[in-house]
Write a structure and sequence with these properties.
With 144 residues, the protein is α+β, with helices and mostly antiparallel strands. The chain has four helices and three strands; from the N terminus they run H-H-H-E-E-E-H. Helix 2 packs across helix 4. The model has no long low-confidence stretch (mean pLDDT 79). It has a three-stranded antiparallel beta sheet with strand order 1-2-3. A hairpin with a 5-residue loop joins strand 2 and strand 3.
Length: 144
């Protein structure tokens, strides 16, 4: 009888310090998703749609500053042309507060990551769903 199937062996003797392969696969996938959505979050609100930051207004702008405005400031210096994006929360009478770029960007990053993670989970569940007319797989059995 092989050592791994002996019933008198102590479970602590058989413990493996390495995480299971599934955990490693999930961590790699999560890291890839977070990196990809960070890159998306850098390109999308800066180059393609700066107004996307307005979607974060309910999270960031508090009363009486309820109207979000995204402003791009372009200036020229010895290094060339630079553009800065900043979000302002404006009130009914013109009063405003500057939010900046980081807080809306972080909120959008979380939103993009949540959407992609939900799509990946739904895709995994869709793949595991048994098809009509296909027999269910039996659980693997082991002989002791």
């Amino acid at each position: 009888m092989s050592e791994e199937y002996r019933s008198d062996a102590h479970p602590a003797d058989q413990a493996d310090d390495q995480p299971p392969r599934r955990t490693r696969k999930i961590l790699v996938m999560l890291g890839t998703i977070l990196f990809g959505t960070a890159m998306l979050g850098t390109v999308l609100p800066v180059a393609i749609w700066p107004g996307e930051a307005k979607l974060t207004a309910p999270l960031i702008c508090a009363a009486p500053y309820t109207e979000p405005i995204v402003v791009s400031d372009t200036f020229h210096d010895s290094d060339g042309q630079s553009t800065n994006f900043s979000m302002y929360c404006v009130g009914d009478r013109g009063q405003y507060t500057e939010v900046g770029f980081l807080r809306p960007w972080l909120a959008l990053w979380v939103l993009h990551s949540a959407i992609v993670i939900a799509l990946v989970i739904m895709g995994g569940l869709w793949r595991k769903r048994p098809r009509a007319g296909e027999p269910e797989r039996l659980a693997e059995s082991r002989e002791l």
